[in-house]
Amino acid sequence: MKKNQMLMTSGTIWKQMLLFAFPVFLGNLFQQLYNTADSLIVGNYLGSSSLAAVTSCGELIFLLTSLLQGISVGAGVVIARYFGANDKERMQNAIHTLMAFGLIFGIGLTVFGYL
After folding, report:
1. Series of mean pLDDT values for 10-residue runs along the chain (115 residues)
2. Whole-number pLDDT of residue 104
3. What is the predicted pLDDT for the residue at 97?
4. CA of 41: how far to CAs of 26, 46, 53, in Å?
5. How many CB atoms are closer than 10 A to CB 89?
6. What is the distance between the terminal CA atoms of the chain, rounded to a whole angstrom?
7. Phi, psi of 7 (to 5 degrees)
8. d(CA 71, CA 68)
């Protein structure tokens, strides 16, 4: 095991879970702060119709990010099972499949958003 590597299969469970969940919490907090600041600036300087457009787009972005987070959690379960079974080949295949899906979905979403 590498010196910087943290295994969640050993040690205190609650501490491992908190260390794992903290970056996710910070990401969601900053996303919410960004939406709040965006709404304040647009609402104060551009008017109510612009605020309505920003607010409605914010919900769509939240839906898409939540969808991808759910897919990532599901893929994490599959990867964790292969990791626990010490099946490195299947684990690598699952990781590569997840990365390819994310790349293809990201490109497709970029094209859809641009159009």
Report:
1. 65 82 87 84 85 80 83 90 92 93 88 83
2. 92
3. 93
4. 22, 8, 13
5. 8
6. 47
7. -95, 130
8. 5
